[in-house]
Amino acid sequence: DRENTIYITLISPGSGDRQNNGSSAVTSRSINIRVNLNFLLCVSNCEYMNMFKNQIHTVMSAFPPVVEAGTPVHGNDEVERHLVLVEKVAYSKGLPPEAISVMLEFAMSLRMGTVLCARVLRCLIPATVVPQEAVVRAVVWLGVGKIPMSTQVLFIKWVLTMFDMIDGKDQLRAIYGFIFSFVTEENLCPFICHLLYLLTRKESGKSFSHLRYGPFIQRFPQFYSYSLFLVFSSLLQALLTGRQPFLMHLLSLYKVLCPELVTLSIPSRMRWVRNHNSTWKSTLIGVQKRNGSQAASSIGLAFTIKDKASSRKRKHTHLQLPALSSVVNKQPQSEPSSSRKLVPLVQLHSFAQLLENMHHIELPAQMGSLLGSSLALQYLDFVQDESALLRLNFWLGYALYEEFLFCGDGGGFQNSDEALQFLNKLLSTENFLQGGFTSSEAFLYKFLTVWDGSLLRPQILALLSNIPVVPSSQIGRLLFEPLMQLFFTSSVFFKCGLVECLNSMLLKWLTWHSVYALEDDLDISLKSYTSINMTLSGFKDSVMDLVHFVGQLASVGLQLEGCHSLLLSFTLDFYETVCDMFLKYGLPLVVMPPPGVFYPTLFATDPISVDRLAYIMYRYKVNLASAKSQEKLTEAFHISSQTFHEFNHYVVVMVNSLWNSRMFKPDMDLKLSEELLLKSSVPQHWTSFDLIHHPAFMSYAIDFHQKVTFLHQKSYDADILTSIKLTPQSGPKERFGDVTTFPSFFRLATCLLQKHP
Amino acid sequence: MALLKPFSKLPCLNTANILLVESEEQFQQSLADTLVEETAFTVNVRLAKSLPLPMENEESRPRIDLVVFIINLTSELSFQSAEVSLKNLDPGYFLGKVCFMVTNARNASVPTERLDAVRKLAASLHCPMLFAEDQTPDGVTNATERLLTILKVAAGFVPMATALYLSNLTRRTAPPDIEQPSFD
Which Pfam family name is an example for this entry (chain B) (predicted)? Predict the structure, then answer.
């Protein structure tokens, strides 16, 4: 706070009231902010204001007003008739750019009072583009202060909704400070913040550099843009009373641009606010649909990386990736002091060009367009430009929220495959960058709580598997609770899909770990696209939580679905990842499967499951043995003796039932009373789960027996099965002849013959 | 005041009975049409606008295994009607034989307070809350599948599982505050 005070004092105009102004800036914030801000605006915008006032006059004379100021509204049939006509055209075809200019001017100047202003704003649907000059002029009218607050909000909402269609942003950026001044209006603030977010760029300060400097700035001309940021960010921080998401978003962008200026800690995940007006959007969509490809191509303009894509019909303003356009890269009207020449990304067509211009690339205003261009992604991946990622995240979060969580009536997009294409594009981007975006992660947490489990299932599950490691304290609330409810109320196919998704999530977490663990010993920090720093123990906790969670899902799921073999197979996939965590990924953690997974697999009726269980147990054994030997050497980690105990117990059970024919003996987990076993009148019940009589292997045994009897020219004798004796000493070869004809047997047998720790 | 009781009648062989309660009677019908297509066992679907059920069919009405309250989030009335109807159920139903099916949750015109209110209601009654996309055929099929999954358990077709057991796994503990997960 003290720092803020000093900053604000510095820019106060008079030396006499500086002390007062500065010290009270913190106590009675808004008044003083107003005072300082007004000064700031005088400095930065007086020239622009004059310029635009002149422009307004010229424009007014060029388009003579249709009506005189003060013409009565009520009972004026002529105006009514004209307006109805305009509305009709607007809602059916959209208005051409010139008409937008005239109507906006008409509305914002309040030439016919405030009632018509709102009505005109509602029907301002552009057919192609919105001229930038018109918006700038309207913003200037906003400063006059006669327009009622609700209409001001309506206007800013209109700008936000139409932002993609404004044909240039440089002049809007030039009056950045002017727009910023509205931040102090309580009602306008959320919308202004959003607009500022869209306008803020790394180069934001530059366009001011040709202005005449104020007294302070004259002394430090080289810090002009810096000082602007200083003022903006300290004002924002002063305004921040709670944790208003709109202010936080803007501040987070400032923090990336000038980290030393924003002293607040900004949470990495923030709430999204709804600023768009859905009625405009749906009308806009309708108009664009009717106008077809023509509108799209005129927005996309000449330079598009994807040739075909630009002619696609624009049905959803947010779902469609904006084409990389050159509109926004028009040089600002006058920028003499820009010494460094920036190359717009659209003008690069090959990787070689990208390499050449790596250090002076200008990113497009529409960050969403990066998703569609592989060159842009390569740039993003290599440069790790945090502000670009932040802006991309912002755009993405907005698009996802608007299209999937706050839909218009009937969801809108469901019957189109635009949503599908959009998510696929997002997925391929995430795969390319090898990490998820924080905004898509935050979106998923929200979406999971209202998901029906089938809508866009493959895409949602794939996105889910990309999320970065979730801290153990949050994982239950954010992920497990919604997933558990979906899992137990959905079909077996959903269950399989979810287990597969969690498996690939675990794989990605482990891969990240193994990459970062190499870099700085055991203390890892997972940077990728999140700013979470995580210690090794924190990471281990999260992984353990995930493994236990899947264990729980699988045991109960298998029970409810009657040990469905498909679900069992996906579960075993998961445990094939888990059992190798130490050797393959260097994570000193071994988690055994729960009994609810182990026993259904051991007594499964298909040989493949039993075989895979044997493989998993074998890998556990190798991992545990190597962990034990390393533990003795380094003592850097410790595997609990409980884990060894569980493993040994499982192996004993497996060997006893499959090999030693000691089923239902007292030391086994399965306890059945002697009377009950006698009652069942199964002869030699203790052999019923050995390698020959196990339901999974019975068919192999019979097959083998038939082959033997055929070779020996004997008649088929079922009793020979029982006469084959199993002894722990004899190897598989003696018992089954040429075991290579039974590959699953062979691997299982060799696994079991390995000594366990 | 006739309370609907879960165990007052004997079950029929291979038959499960489900009661769909929806004040607006929009989604009910399409859901019922797909529910009866189940072939593994007989599904009887009973439709109601609200509870209590009228007395006249009392005798012929089979034992109801699962009561589903369909709530359209875009209408306040739908939620209020379900809230009132809940009072006409025997407490025994809340041991896993009631669930909520919510439609239009992703609609922009739904106030978040209403969604939270439904969540709180479901959490306080220990009932699962399913979301459904009632506009698309795929959404209806999926909603049907999920209801059948619960119905099978509630009607006792799944060995080793009871309705109470399942509801312990699927109920919400508390309405989550997903809005602002802060990790810092």
Answer: CENP-M
